[in-house]
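Ticket #4471: structure output looks truncated?

Reporter: J.K.
Steps to reproduce: submitted the chain below (275 residues) through the standard prediction queue, then opened the result file.
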Amino acid sequence: MFSCIPVAAIPNAPFGTSFWDQHRNGLTAIATILITIAVAQLADRAVARRGRRLRERFGAELSPVASTRLRLVRRLIFAAIIVIGIGLALSQFPSIKRFATGLLASSAILGIVVGFAARQTIANAIAGVLLAITQPIRIGDLVTFKDSTGTVEDVRLTYTYMRAADGRRIVIPNEQLASSAIENHSIGQHLRAEASVWLTDPAEALRAVNVLAEPGVDVSVAEIDKEGIRVLATTWVSSPAERDSRSAGLRATCLERLAKEGLSSGERASRPSSE
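Returned output as attached by the reporter:
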């Protein structure tokens, strides 16, 4: 009676054949992942080329709305291809395939577990899609979120990146942006430049209102508290860059005029607003 001898046990068996039989699943999975990455890169470049062709056709840069949506589409396509490729790679292993089949049989429990574990990530991703569709903020907009003001650099699938005036980079989860109030200073036609001075004496505050008033600048008593009286001087500009320089000039002018009148003051930072 003849017995079956494994190929790997035969001394004269070709090395390439035995190596492929032993590592076929791993090699196939690696090849699948490499092909997936290449396809994702090609798709991303194809979408980017499409955007460049649109800019060349119309002879101008894409609007902030179109630019924001184009970036979201690129990232969604890239992520979808990578997820599909990883799934195909893992399916090459019988043990993982059987495990996945068992999990799919109890999909309700799996959905609850995965949804609870990744609820924050899923919420951020869904909020990112909603932000790209509804466009409350766009790339290049000057916005204020809570106590932070800056220019939107990028709206990604889960996070939004914002650059403050002092160079700080602020990363905000999209779920917070979608569920909180955002002050977008670039939606209106004008931005407000402002400067605040604090005085402790009511009579001096009233004098400061008259001293600081000039054509094109509105001056008013904005706040009264235990620390003093805040006098606010405001004017309107047409761009974020002009707002910063105009605010700085307005602060310097206020301090100079108060010093000439012998009025003591202190300055506090205040957030910009839009009309």
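Triage note (M.O.): checked the attachment and the full token line is present. Residues 113 and 119 are 10 Å apart (CA to CA).
Status: closed, working as intended.
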